[in-house]
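Forum > Structural Biology > Help requests

Title: Can anyone predict the 3D structure of Vanillate O-demethylase monooxygenase subunit?

Hi all, first post here. I have the sequence for Vanillate O-demethylase monooxygenase subunit but no way to get a structure on my laptop. I'd be grateful if someone could post the structure tokens.
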Amino acid sequence: MSAQWKPLIEHKGYLRHFWHPVCTLSEFEKANASGHGPMSVKLLGENLVLARLDGQMMAADDRCVHRSARLSLGSVCKHQGKDTLQCPYHGWRYNDAGECTLVPACPDRPIPPRAKIAKYDCAIRYGIVWVRLDNSFDCTEIPYLGDWDSEGMKVVVAESYVWETSAERRWENFTDFSHFAFVHPGTLYDPFFASHPTVNVDRSHGELRFQLAPPKEMYETLPEEAPMGDFTYRCSMPYSVNLEIKLWKDDSKFILWTTASPVDDRTCRNFMVIVRTEDQQPDHVHLAFQKRVLEEDRPVIQSQWPIELDSAELSVGTDKISIQYRKWHRELSQAALGGKDEFKAALLSEVLEER
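Reply #1:
Sure, ran it for you. Structure tokens for Vanillate O-demethylase monooxygenase subunit below:
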């Protein structure tokens, strides 16, 4: 590795204060024959177990406090009329608060007070399971997804996919206009229009917001299934993108929403939801096109080195979005070290460009 390399973001503890997706609800329900888990997931380098106990989704450390067996290898079963998560090794059972309620080898003895697993905030939204590892600041929300439950809109939640790159690299790939002409020629863009103007980038309510109008002249050169139109972005920090497209072909609405979840420093799990005005096309047509685009991106993004953002990378004017994005990440990282008030102020700061 080059001696000049230095990570852009050195302190990543701030990411624990955000909500991150860990699997789709469909993936969770398929992970175990019961449909209630348990399921193993990984977030920010930590092994977690998911289980649905008495109808409520639970996320906790995937480690029994007794002899450290993976709880995700266990089962969900009843104890005293309530669902519990049973360890596969010695059968210790944990309730929805993470407390051990039964030690089968010592049923008549008091359960040790320390017999409790760490439990985390967990919620289901948009057909996706979300986890927040640290709620001590309690100023973050599950990211925005437009028209999720609007009448007349068709919703498709795709299966998640894993890339060998950082979540920051994946986010920048999705919002990088300059790569379209070179990575997606004939798919999303006509290479003739390789240059593009800079855009206004606003920071508001925990989101980066900006708009782009690609040249309409290239519309006839692209596949019919390409969702081309006027782009409006609402990007919830740290890794979500809500791209609303006003389609040129009929002025209908097409929303492409994506989030990259940091499995660890070298890997991210990615989620995609398509929300569109009801049309006559089957879902697989839209999913297949997006998969085609992703497969054009993936080898290029996985080739970036170092995997983490590099402070020595050279930026130009058309990198304005990623410049602002990186700047905000650095601010959040430093603010989190100062405590809740500083972090909240940095997250909810309003920075609007003059028009």
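The chain has two domains: 24-130, 153-347. The chain has a mean pLDDT of 95.
Shout if anything looks off.
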